[in-house]
Amino acid sequence: MTSQQTITFLRRMLRIARTEIAAVSALFIVALGVMTFIEVADDMTETDGQAFDQAVLAWMQPVAGEPRGPWWLKEAAADLTSLGGISVLTLFAVIAIAFLLIQRKRLSALLLVLGLAGGVALSEGLKDLFGRQRPPSDFQAVDTLNASFPSGHALLSTVFYLTLGVMLTRAFPRAHLKAFVLGAAILIALLIGLTRVYLGAHWASDVFAGWCAGAAWAMALWLVAYAVARRQAVRDKGLHDEALPPEPAPDTDAPVIGE
Question: What letter would DSSP give residue 200?
Answer without folding.
Answer: T
